[in-house]
Known about the structure:
The protein has one domain. It is built from 13 helices and no strands. The chain has helices at residues 3-19, 22-30, 36-64, 72-96, 102-109, 112-123, 130-154, 156-186, 188-211, 220-245, 250-256, 259-272, 278-315.
Amino acid sequence: MNRQIVLGYVYAALGAALFSTKAIFIKLAYVDKADAGLMLALRMVTALPFFLGVALFVIYRDKKAGRPLPSPKVWLATIAIGFVGFYLSAYLDFKGLVYITAQLERLVLFTYPVMIMILGWLFFNGRITLMGCVGAGITYGGLLIVFMKSVPEGGSNTILGTALVLACALTYALYQLLAKQIIGIIGSPLFTGVALSSSAVACVLHYIIANQTFDFSATRNFYVMAIGCGIVATVIPSFLVNASLSRVSAQSSSMIAAISPIITISLAVWILGESFTLVDALGSALVIIGIVLYAVTDQKSEAEKKMEIAGEMETV
C-alpha cells in the first residue's frame, strides 16, 4: 500500500480518537457552568496562537521560497469554510451538549458521513449507491433506538439537543466536502491555520456580542477543561484530520473515524458515570455498522468510477 495512504489512515485514526475526547471536556466544564458560548470562546482562544502561528510560518516559508500567495478568492473561501466548520458547527455541537449525554451526542454527530453522501450527490457530483442507502438506513435505525430510549429520560431537552447536534453534523459534512477542494490548492497546514484562526475570532466575537460583555471569568475547573478541549481535542486532531484529507478521501477518513463513538462512550461511562444499557449497545453497534458499510461500499464505488474514467481515456 502507498505510504502516503497509510499515513492518511493513521492520521485519521489519531485525529478521531482525540476529537472524541471533546464531549468529555465539555461535560466536565458544564458541571460548573453550562455556558456553550463561553466554553467555545475559551477553547478557540486557547487554540488561536497555534493556528495563527502555523499560518504565519507557512506564509513566510512560501514567500521566502518565491511561491505565490493564494488569491483573494482562495483566502475568502478558506475563511468561509472555517466559519462553517469550526464556528457554526462547533457552536451547534457545544449547545447540544447542554441538553444531551456525551454518548448520544457522539452517535448523532457520527452520522455526518451519510450527510456527506447526500450533499455530495446533490452538489458535488457524487454518487448514491444501493448499499450506501442500506448503510444509511442501518445508521439512522440505530440512532433512533438510542434516541427513543433517551427521550423518556430527558424529554424535550433530548429532542432539542439531538436537533442541534444533527445540524452540527450537517454543517460539518459540508465543511469536509468544501475543505478537501481548498486543501488541494493551498495545502493542509495553511488551510488549517487560516480556517481555524478566522473561526476563533468569530467564536470570541459571538460571545461578546451575544452577552454584551467582555467578562470571560469562570471557575478554575472550567478554564482547565476549556484549555484541554482547545489543545487535546482541537489543535492536535484538527491538523491530523486535515493532513489525512490531503492523502485520502473524506469517505475513507470517515470510515476510520468509526473508533470515535467507541472511545467517547467508554470515556463517558468511565469518567462521567453515564449509564450504558443493552439498548444503548444495540443502537451504537447499528450506527457504527451502518457507517462502516457505507464507507466501504463508497470506496468501491470510487474505485469503479476511476476504472471507468481510465477505460474511457484508453478509447480516446
